[in-house]
Amino acid sequence: MKVRNIILVLLCQICTMQAQDKIMMLVGTYTYGNSKGIYSCRFNQATGEAEVLDSLGMKNPSYLTVSRDGSLAYAVSETNDDKASLNIIGLNNKGGMRLLDTALTEGADPCYVAQNGHIALTANYSGGSMSVFSLNGSHAKLSTRFLGATGGPDLSRQDTPHVHCACFTPDGKYVLATDFSADRILSYRIQGQKVIANGVAADVTADSGPRHLTFSRDGRFAYLMSELSGKVTVFNYSQGRLKTLQEITSDSVGARGGADIHLSPDGRFLYSSNRLKAEGIAIFSVDNKTGLLTHIGYQPTDAHPRQFNITPNGQFLLCCCRDSDKIQVFRRNSQTGMLTDTHQDIPLSKPVCVQFISEKGN
Asked: What is the CB neighbour count within 10 angstroms for residue 29?
């Protein structure tokens, strides 16, 4: 009897572990191919296998993010017209999605969205602006817009304002936005549901084209991927300001197509993607005391690795290869930081954003 009970307990533990290995994820796409819009999938963090569950029709949902409790998703519709918008989507634990609200960004080609439960931000690339929305449950209302500027030397890429990323700082008190065409990062102060201009957080090297930002787990350091220079800049972060510590090359062939940037969940490694030539992901080790980076490797990918993400358990890196119509699944060595292609591609038309959410009981 005791042996039987032990076996039952072990079986229950195995089933629980297997359930925990499976997480939900959402994929944003461009819809000028065969894509319908947003796809929900179940991903196995132990095996690297994925299953597409559902789709939601939406034009060019090129970037999305998920609420802390996993019940809502926020997705842009990246269009170059007056229909560009922020969309709020209800999620359930079976992968079902339902459009709840849409609010115009009043800025063309929104390509990034962030939210803290009270405020949502969109970075509008062609509109050269950041839109700020007040959130009330599943509804969003545009409250204000802030404009970017020009000043960079590349007259073909920096001739008009472009804002590419807008994110909340780890201390929850500020917003930082990449002012692509002016080679700087702008700072904003949060006051309730208001966002107030707070000057320049940092200037970056001319002809950089700052694109995406990410922060260390302890909030002391920020890491910037620049599109034009193809370099990663390391900053010390404090009270809405950034101080440059290091600049290191990610794109070594001058392709001028730097894209995304992420730290591993344990903070020991940093990854940045490069497009247009020698496409792939640069790998850096991180000195957690100083924040400084050392280049340790490079993983080639398929065509146009626009965005990527790392599973919560750190075992896999999923890379959205837009022009190969697939998400490549790489196994990540947690000790060395190196990546290995599992050849378990997730075939989707024009994938450009993947975000993970935990299973929930709603």
From this structure: 26
**Cα–Cα separations (whole angstroms), residue 73 to 28, 144, 229, 270, 320:** 11, 21, 32, 26, 19
Sign of CA dihedral 164, 67, 187, 311: negative
CB 143 within 8 A of CB 133: yes
Q: Is 282 exposed, middle or buried (0-12, 13-18, 19+ CB in 10 A)?
A: buried
Q: Residue 280 in 3-state DSSP?
A: strand
pLDDT tens-digit series, residues 232-289: 999 999 999 999 999 999 999 999 999 999 999 999 999 999 999 999 999 999 999 9
Average pLDDT over residues 200-206: 98
Burial class of residue 208, CB neighbours in 10 A (0-12, 13-18, 19+):
buried
> For residue 7, is pLDDT > 90?
no
Q: Which two tokens stand for residue 318?
A: 């999923």
Instruction: Answer whether 164's CB lies under 8 Å from 126's CB.
Output: no
CB 61 within 8 A of CB 77: yes
- How far is the C-alpha of 53 from the C-alpha of 346, rounded, in Å? 12
Strands 293-300 and 305-310, bridge-based pairing: unpaired
Residue whose C-alpha is closest to residue 77's, from 102, 55, 52, 98: 102
Q: What is the DSSP string of 307-333?
A: EEEE-TTSSEEEEEEGGGTEEEEEEE-
Rounded average pLDDT over 113-119? 97
**Cα(20)–Cα(9) distance, integer angstroms:** 17
Q: Nearest-CA neighbor of 110 among 66, 67, 75, 160?
A: 75
What number of residues does the chain have? 362
The 10s digit of each residue's pLDDT in 45-86 is: 999 999 999 999 999 999 999 999 999 999 999 999 999 999
Q: Indicate the pTM of the whole model.
A: 0.94
Q: What string of DSSP letters covers 110-129?
A: EEEEEE-SSEEEEEETTTTE
